[in-house]
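STRUCTURE REQUEST FORM
Protein name: Phosphatidylserine decarboxylase proenzyme
Source organism: Croceibacterium soli
Requested output: structure tokens
Priority: standard
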Amino acid sequence: MAGDLLDNRGRGHAEWGWPSIHPEGRKFGLAAVGVSLIFLLLFDWEIVGWPLLLLSLGVFAFFRDPERVVPQGQDFIVSPADGLITQIGQVAPPVELQGLDPQDGIGLGSEPVTRISIFLSVFDVHINRAPVGGTVRRVVYIPGKFTNADLDKASEENERQHVLIERSDGTVLAFTQIAGLVTRRIVPFIKPGDILAAGQRVGLIRFGSRVDVYLPQGTDPKVLLGQRVIAGETILAEIGRQGLIEGVSQ
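Status: completed
Returned output:
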């Protein structure tokens, strides 16, 4: 059940279950089922109907929305997306996140920070979650292109949405949802002023995409290039903790 407190002392209740389908995806799945049934029942075109029926199952699977167990550490930054870590590096934050908006006066500044890029394939869960708990200070949507989200230039050219969150201690963190090659819409669930818990659902990106996370100054990542992460569960970093880590691909 959602909201159960699970820990390493056996408290709580956990069981496997089919993940729910997010309402945003039900209309697409039902439409695909409807079209496939028309070809199968009305036209008897099995060569078209059966592939469309299989495609409809894929659509439902794409919009699956599984429950996640969020680590409850005060300074944990959890992954906002399922996917593959494809880039880790020092970059200047996007201008939309640097603090140029006079309405809130809050931003990341112009100094380089560590950016972690997570690439989502069409097989990944596309529900995005809040990396930290806090107040949403800024949501900025920018129209753009639909190039391969795995390319570095996607952060500046593709359709994208920036989200800036301020924690109760004043620490500011941001992430960016980036549309991919076949993505055609970023769907937000939040707005400025909303108060979030870490791991709370904040939006989704349709059909392949990328999410960039901008860590606060003085914070090093606890993940590596090539590592797969799970939204709301994998710890990307711990605020204020530094130190390089290494891993071996096997």
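Reviewer notes: The longest helix spans residues 23-42. The chain has a mean pLDDT of 86.
Form closed.
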